[in-house]
Amino acid sequence: MNSTESREPASRAWYTILYVQVLIAIVLGAMVGCLWPSVAASDWVKALGDGFIKLIKMVIAPLVFCTVTSGIAKVHDAKKVGRIGVKALVYFEVVSSFALLLGLVMGNLVNVGHGLSVNLDTEAANHVLPQANASKAVDFFLNIIPDTIVGAFYRGDLLQVLLLAVLFGFSLLALGKRGELMRVIIDDTAHSLFGAINILMKAAPIGAFGAMSFTIGKFGPAVLGSLVGLIALFYVTAALFLIIVLGLIARLAGFSIVRFILYIKDELLLVLSTSSSESALPRLMDKLERLGCSRPVIGLVVPAGYSFNLDGTNIYTTLTTMFIAHSLRVDLTFDQQLTIVLAAMLTSKGASGVTGAGFITLTATLSAISPALVPGAAIVFSIDKFMSEARALTNIVGNGVAAVFVSWWEGELDQATLQAGLNRPMTDAGELPH
């Protein structure tokens, strides 16, 4: 699932924009938590944040099933273009893995979340300890297999739902044209669930207010330091990914990542103002073609990348999961951390363009690891908006680099046009002179 957010109409009053409402709710929540901690720490205020998380969690299992199945079904279309589609998918999975692992490594190296020190209650601990103490790989393997198809959805076990989705997706591919109707139904169901998510997100300001109020009221204003630390660490990690991982990929293809970022700076500013990497999609595709990339490659790689190549969302998911685990004093085993990577690899697919997609991906991944970690999402939700821009910016740069790299890999990149475009000075309007 993506870190992109829906674009609000420009004609609307500022106070009716969801982004602004959430920011106001966060500020009000922080004030209530600091001024009236006893009120903020009450069960009713806590219920505001927890209730919103439960609303989101309510649709996670069917949403993940439909999006993953639909995403696999789209591979069928990619196969039609042959070599380009295969190379694009290989690139997406390899680079996404680097993004997930980087977030996981940074989360382990920098002990974010230690300032919260939230204690698990007995019931939550019982959910975690059996899984954490399971040392046999065979037990882990057997737990992924559901007793029944319905049972996986009833229990809300995301690993079991993911297994069913993968099996069902590939079975639809095997059916060919006979499975077309079912693919359409699943895709429409996924869009309907996305619509439900958009409706539920209207309650986001209430959830953000409750989460921030209770967190500060319960654990004191010092908790803000940990939350700010998470935001800063995420931005640093995203920057490292751009400079090191994408920088090396760009160098291999013969161009500078810094020059490329400057080349698409207008598109990045558009993403920054809308928190939506999709808002700049048409302009990005046009600029990539003028940069010497093959039109067929651009037409496949860039749109597919919005579902399969969400680097910013992947970093956010693993890093924030480690933050929540540290906050709840849960020591995740190596197997569980590997599960984070595998689950996030699947849950991040197909959620582009959905409001709060990054947070939905996070919640789905937490559910796959342990139910006890899901309540921690309420804490992170209160600051999620501050990380959405970095997610979207990382996503669009990653998709742009992917198009250039696959064009180079295919031998369809005009190096002369590429170097001329990247080294040409920008006009005041930010457009390349003709």
Provide a short characterization of the protein structure:
The chain is an all-alpha fold. The chain has helices spanning 18-35, 37-40, 43-58, 60-80, 83-109, 122-133, 137-144, 149-155, 158-175, 180-200, 204-219, 223-253, 257-263, 265-274, 281-290, 295-308, 311-327, 334-347, 357-369, 377-381, 385-409, 415-423. The model is unreliable at 1-10, 120-137 and 427-434 (pLDDT under 50).
Task: Describe the secondary structure blueprint for this structure.
Layout: H1 18-35, H2 37-40, H3 43-58, H4 60-80, H5 83-109, H6 122-133, H7 137-144, H8 149-155, H9 158-175, H10 180-200, H11 204-219, H12 223-253, H13 257-263, H14 265-274, H15 281-290, H16 295-308, H17 311-327, H18 334-347, H19 357-369, H20 377-381, H21 385-409, H22 415-423
Helix pairs in contact: 1-11, 3-11, 4-5, 4-9, 4-10, 5-12, 5-16, 5-17, 5-18, 5-21, 12-17, 12-21, 14-21, 15-16, 15-21, 16-21, 17-18, 17-19, 17-21, 18-19
Structure, explained:
- Mean pLDDT is 76; it is low at 1-10, 120-137 and 427-434.
- The protein contains 22 helices and no strands.
- It has a single domain (19-423), classed as Orthogonal Bundle (Proton glutamate symport protein), CATH 1.10.3860.
- 74% of the residues lie in helices and 0% in strands.
- It has helices at residues 18-35, 37-40, 43-58, 60-80, 83-109, 122-133, 137-144, 149-155, 158-175, 180-200, 204-219, 223-253, 257-263, 265-274, 281-290, 295-308, 311-327, 334-347, 357-369, 377-381, 385-409, 415-423.
- The chain is globular, with a radius of gyration of 22 Å.
- α5 packs parallel to α16 and α12 (223-253) packs antiparallel against α17 (311-327).
- By secondary structure, it is an all-alpha fold.
